[in-house]
Amino acid sequence: MISGQQISASLWADVSPPREAAAQLQARTETDIAVIGGGFSGLSTALHLARSGHQVMLLEAMEVGFGGSGRNNGQVIPTMTAAEPDAIEDRFGEAGERFVGLIRDSASYLFDTAREENIDCEAEQTGWFQPAHRESRLALSRKRVEAWAKRGAPCRLLDRAECEEVLGSDLWHGGMYNPTGGHINPLALARGLAAACEKRGVTIHEKTPVTSMERRDGKWCLRTPNGEVTARAVMLASNAYTGHFTSALAPKIARSVVPVLSWQMATAPLTDEQRKTIVPGREAVSDTHGDLRFFRFDKRNRLVTGGALACGLNGAERLKPLVGRRLQEAFPVLGMPKFDFVWNGYIGMTEDRFPFISQLGPDFWCWAGCNGRGVGLSVSLGRELAAAIAGQPVSDLALPLSDPKPIPLHSLIKTVAPPVMLPLYRWRDGRD
Ligand SMILES: Cc1cc2nc3c(=O)[nH]c(=O)nc-3n(C[C@H](O)[C@H](O)[C@H](O)COP(=O)(O)OP(=O)(O)OC[C@H]3O[C@@H](n4cnc5c(N)ncnc54)[C@H](O)[C@@H]3O)c2cc1C
Q1: 41, 48, 261, 320: most buried by Cβ count inside 10 Å?
Q2: How high is the pLDDT of residue 4?
Q3: Span 384-408, average pLDDT
Q4: Is residue 1 assigned to a domain?
Q5: pLDDT tens for each residue of 123-173
Q6: Ligand 1 centre and the CA of 99: distance in Å?
Q7: CA 378 to ligand 1 center in whole angstroms
Q8: How far apart are CA 125 and CA 190, in angstroms?
Q9: Does 200 reside within a domain?
Q10: Predicted pLDDT at 419
Q11: Please, which residues have CB within 8 angstroms of residue 12's CB and are 6 or more apart in sequence?
């Protein structure tokens, strides 16, 4: 499709507790609130609505966690990639301030939610570290630490020696550390959230793509291949996958995000000796490269990492030596690592790197455009969107609303973005 095909042989699919598939929708029925999409956003929205006694039906095209939520690196990061707190507040005023607060607290909120719902998702709140890959990038780390600390985030700047201690590598120069971050097994979290939803009475239908929706007699009517549901309110939580199954559902949303394949990989489990010297505190790490370097341990002491490709052809085989060399350079004790799993998934990028949260019609809500940072964010946004659907005034919520901005020549941009942007990022990465 775009820069190669999505492949699913993920570590998470191999190690997560299995989930019994929910039935396909095969009837004409009604609900109070319909949620489209079974990722963190849809599941969190459904869970929060069910907690406050609402009737909810969640429709997922494939299976729970099929999208970004079941395929990601599992890093729980309380910042956005490019939308900085000052810029968010400048753009959205008070709503922006509330949203910055939501991002600041989003990692802890995710870990708390997993604990409250008894979800076994290998959660480790060991902190998130963003090391600077060039000395000059420390200025950016310092600026970010100041901006977040001013807003109450418990983050701090680590110097080069502290950085080396955290990473077990002298390749980086210091950086921003936030103890509230960490990592999870994302598919286990998605399945656990689905179980929590079902326990509270949410009806989930899998293998049920919504193919179109229309307003009829003051309600929303959602069509699926073998059934139809009428709802007072709808949450569209299909994010980067909005145009994946049908172009008819929400074309304006689909054209406002560019789905870019992100590749994930897991090494064979490390020996105890190797593990003790590499990121000994088990933090989640993603650095300041545009062509991002990222890694974290899973429960079995595999390093879960990955990379980007301009062209996805034969991607898994091409990435193994590239990412292997990068890891070896950082951690010589690894030698050339063996990778047991390679998989990928679509990240929803927007033109201005801001997510958009929109009300698209009466009782019709959506958000999209995580730009690579949506694990913590989507769970917290689910809470706020549930409150909006339940009728709480938006002026009280952390929802900086904006219209989706369809990207001109979207089909072309989808195809050419990775081959054009990745070399540009690499070029910038090499400069001060
Ligand atoms: C490879 C990868 C690595 C990432 N790593 C990180 C990370 O380490 N940290 C971080 O913070 N973020 C990361 N992200 C981003 C993060 O995973 C996403 O922001 C987050 O999971 C989005 O959740 P969501 O529920 O909004 O969307 P998704 O999880 O994508 O869910 C959307 C769901 O909607 C369904 N759907 C689509 N269309 C329809 C339809 N018509 N009818 C019914 N269902 C439909 C899809 O099948 C899908 O299950 C990563 C993303 C990817 C792809």
Answers
A1: 41
A2: 56
A3: 96
A4: no
A5: 999 999 999 999 999 999 999 999 999 999 999 999 999 999 999 999 999
A6: 20
A7: 9
A8: 17
A9: yes
A10: 86
A11: 65, 70, 71, 74, 185, 186, 187, 188
Q: Which residues contact 235 (CB under 8 A, 6 or more apart)?
A: 33, 34, 35, 36, 41, 42, 45, 46, 365, 366, 385, 389
What stretch of H or E contains 25? none
Are the CB atoms for 312 and 4 separated by under 8 Å?
A: yes
CATH number of the domain enclosing 195: 3.50.50.60
Tens-digit pLDDT profile for residues 71-90:
999 999 999 999 999 999 99
Residues with Cβ within 8 Å of residue 210, at least 6 apart in sequence: 36, 59, 61, 222, 223, 224, 246, 249
Distance in angstroms (rounded) separating the CA atoms of residues 40 and 348: 14
State the pLDDT confidence band at 6, using cuts at 50, 70 and 90: confident
What is the pLDDT of the chain when averaged over all its residues? 96
Q: Per the domain annotation, does 241 fall within a domain? A: yes
Work out how many domains the chain is built from and give that number. Answer: 1
Nearest CA to ligand 1 atom 35: 37
Nearest ligand 1 atom to the CA of 41 is: 25
Nearest C-alpha neighbor of 384 from the set 401, 402, 403: 401
In which residue are the tokens 């950016």 written?
Answer: 140
Radius of gyration of the chain (CA): 21
Does ligand 1 lie within 6 Å of residue 296's CB atom? Answer: no
Ligand 1 center–CA 42 separation, angstroms: 10
Domain contains 426? no
The continuous run of DSSP H or E covering 286 comes out as strand 284-286
Domain of 62 in residue numbering reads as 11-421
**Percent residues over pLDDT 70 in the chain:** 99
Per the listing, tokens 């060399």 go with: 325
Residue 144 · residue 178 · CB < 8 Å: no
Give pLDDT, residue 1: 35
At 128, the amino acid letter reads W
